[in-house]
Design brief:
homodimer, 261 residues, alpha/beta, Carbamate kinase, 8-stranded mixed β-sheet, 38% helix, globular
Chain lengths: 261, 261
């Protein structure tokens, strides 16, 4: 039997809220078995870019990353956020190491190619090198991943954290019975965005297609759900979307939206 | 026989100069055997603090690190500088991982205690956990260390890079025949600060005491030399101080100042 691995993606709004982050980390620390946390960026990068007067441009929720913005996101994600989380987990007794996709070159990526838009220093994932991740987990550590990767030219690339979580879950499910949690500030996938009690308890790919056709999925949820379905189709054991403050219940099956193949 | 390990500390002025850094990394990549690079901060942190209007205070060359300055140095050292170096080394074929003392909690430190001065979030090293470093090196990776550590309360601490290099060299010399190189922008320890040809080829502790008595050591060199003598006294095989652009010659014994027990 394969050992269990829990991968938790934690969204930016949780990162911005010190109390919520602390509570999420306490729940994460209590998870048994191997575990890995992928964090997003939060507002700190946007705020820092503003303070430095670097104009920011977002297309479909994706940040256009020029060279100055790349410095900002690398500093904030791989520097402050990643190391703050690692230090807190260590102090809680959960020995952790923080990495980007560049460290040990665990994630190979390339600069995004798009027919008419230059996203700048934005990466799309080509490959995950699981052997180092596997060895690091075997050493008894939790791994905290910041959403920065690199290409063959040695360029750092800003990379979507939801996608990184999905790619890691897919690749590591060869070694582990893997659960992937997308945790954010909502109770799950909602039928009505303004009603937190309208959580859809489970969605399969057929329901997903139907909901999309009826335009019942909030546009911000689409990439997350696409990642979730990609993961489950590729052999990830469980994929659950829900509230970061319900992490323990999400793992127990008592909350959130469960993605079904 | 113990395997060989080369630890290179690279100073801030080299980090600030893209061409010099690139040349240093090419030389570092060509070193055979296990290797580890410790980098300082450079002017980027000072510049960023200025841009963010965070007042900076230096006492005896040490930065007083308030909470805002801690964010700046963690972002710059552990974020941008560390990951840029790692990505460049990977692209050169030298598989590398970047860490701080918090990652895997490889360096335990405490907030500096001083009779009358509060240095803020500045760390002094208590202990190096060599087993993870050893395992990471055995995995075939070079390790790139940013000068940030953490204490038992989960606080990140700004920590002197020369000291980190010395502490790592000391601790790892139990497993490896270790060479420690302090590389910076000078040819070595100079008799005359303004004459690059006045390099002292070797200094033993007696000569060092004599030179200090005569005030012939530039004050900026004193902590570096103290670290160098601490390392050599504790069993580090070779300690050499010299120009980052002479890295290969420093290792061959053809340049720099050799520290002798």
């Amino acid at each position: 039997m394969k050992p269990t691995l829990t991968i938790v993606k934690v969204g930016g709004n949780i990162i911005d809220d010190e109390a919520k982050l602390q509570s999420l980390l306490i729940s994460f620390a209590s998870i048994s078995g191997y575990k890995l946390l992928v964090h997003g960026g939060g507002k700190m990068a946007t705020r820092l870019a503003e303070q430095l007067q670097i104009p920011q441009q977002l297309v479909d929720g994706r940040r256009i990353t020029d060279s100055e913005t790349l410095k900002v996101v690398t500093m904030v994600y791989a520097g402050w956020i990643n190391k703050s989380i690692v230090a807190k987990l260590n102090a809680m007794g959960t020995r952790s190491m923080g990495v980007t996709g560049a460290d040990g070159w665990i994630i190979e990526s390339h600069k995004r190619i798009h027919p008419f838009l230059d996203f700048g220093y934005v990466g799309d994932v080509d490959n995950v090198n699981t052997s180092l991740l596997h060895a690091w987990l075997e050493q008894g550590q939790s791994i905290v991943v910041a959403p920065i990767t690199q290409d063959r030219e040695g360029r750092l690339l800003n990379t979507n954290a939801d996608t990184i979580a999905q790619e890691l879950a897919k690749a590591l499910s060869a070694h582990y019975t893997t659960t992937l949690i997308y945790s954010f500030e909502k109770k799950g996938v909602l039928r009505d965005l303004h009603d937190e009690s309208s959580v859809i308890p489970s969605i399969d790919s057929e329901t997903y297609s139907a909901l999309k056709k009826e335009n019942l999925i909030h546009s911000g949820m689409l990439p997350k759900l696409d990642n979730a379905f990609t993961a489950i189709a590729a052999g990830v054991n469980k994929v659950i979307i829900g509230d970061a403050s319900d992490l323990t219940q999400l793992l127990n099956g008592g909350a959130g939206t469960h993605i079904i193949h």
